Amino acid sequence: MGTLNDVIINKLSGGLGRRNPSQDMVSGLLFDGNAIAEDGTSGVAGLDQDKTYRLSSLEDAEALGINEGYDTNGQSAYYQIQQYFRLNSSGDLFIQATTGISYTEIVEKAKAFQESADGEIRQMGIIYSGVADFAASTAAAQVAQVQADEAYVDYMPFEVVLEGKGFGTVLSAGASTTPDLAELNASNVSIVVAMDVEAAKPVLQGGKGLSNSAAVGMTLGAISRAKVSENIAWVEQFNLSGAGFSKAGFVGGEEVKTQGDLETLNANRYVFARTHTGLSGVYFNDSHTATLGTSDFAYIENNRTINKAARLLRTALLPKLASPVLVNEAGLLAPSVTKGFETLCRAALEGMVSNQEVSVFDVFVDPSQDILATSQLRIKAEVTPVGTARKIIVDLGFKNPFGLGA
């Protein structure tokens, strides 16, 4: 049967780009900042101190009144939020403006901030607008590690990204004089000293006056965009160039200099931005944490991987808490019990293998454990991480097909 001529308009879905973000992307930004009074005439919702807000875009921050005008007197909250969403437009970002008279006082609120976000934050950036030297930054790192340790015990692990306040003064004496961050033993903390040279210029030089700030928001954005197994220095995936970050430099405004300087700073486990000869763009040097390079948790991706595995296993096992456990006549765990718990844990971790977040894993429940005496069921779970090609070495030489034999 024929139909009448017509103009047919089909309704499509998906054009608004509404997201279903991975929980691995959920981040937090804690900063000392002023409240913003509610302004009904302009539609500004207002920003309360010590209240946690969840943002899904830069526009959400602007709706609270956090705009370029908010970043005065050393504040960089708007800049950090802007850079976070530039690197990961699909990320979610909890923010909290809080009070504090020192860098460490702000950092001491990290676990409480995590609790206010119901433990959802996977990586947290902390910035401070006040005057601080680099000694205050290293002290803040040790306080941050205490906060991260306490959060892990309470089943809400997160990584901390701190800005290296005062690093410019330390660097001015030479890269060789910079402290070795491995001595801090802060395996869940990274200190970022990267900053866009233009953004770091003092106001009198025409910049935004963020000379003592670091690119914490950009780092958070890269971390949240990466799989938990990925290094944010992966050149193919994480070109940092863009609005607000175009020229690699350090806190204080100094440009990236010689390879020798960078080797020293890298060995001392700082996170900074660099360029690669023969390739345009700006990239991270590595994903160091402030601990020994021989540690199992020397890199951000190591921590994110183990944190994700811990969350998955706890979620899978929690319904079994206080459940009955059968034993045989010798008091050994019944095969149905050992196999059941192993299967439960395997199911929790298999998604990480299929998503290439771990290489392989193994789970074992020892049937000989004395659960009747201890009321404790012990499970051994091991994951083999994904490796990282930090150096690619090629043996290259000439070959003459007509070369003389021996």
Which structural traits does this protein have?
406 residues, alpha/beta, 2 domains, six-stranded mixed β-sheet, two-stranded antiparallel sheet, 12 strands, 15% strand
How would you sum up this structure in a few lines?
With 406 residues, the chain is α/β, with parallel strands linked by helices.
- In helices, the fraction of residues equals 25-40%
In angstroms, what separates the terminal alpha carbons?
Answer: 87 Å
Tally of distinct domains: 2
Q: Enumerate the spans where pLDDT stays under 50 for 5 or more consecutive residues.
A: 16-20, 203-207
Number of helices: 12
Strand order of the largest sheet: 2-3-1-4-5-6
User: DSSP strand (E) fraction?
Assistant: 5-15%
User: Helix- and strand-based class?
Assistant: alpha/beta
**Sequence of secondary-structure elements:** EEHHEHHEHEHEEHHEHEEHHEHE
Anisotropy-based shape: globular
Largest sheet: 6 strands, mixed
What's the rounded overall pLDDT mean? 90
Write down the Rg: 25 Å
Give the total of beta strands. Answer: 12
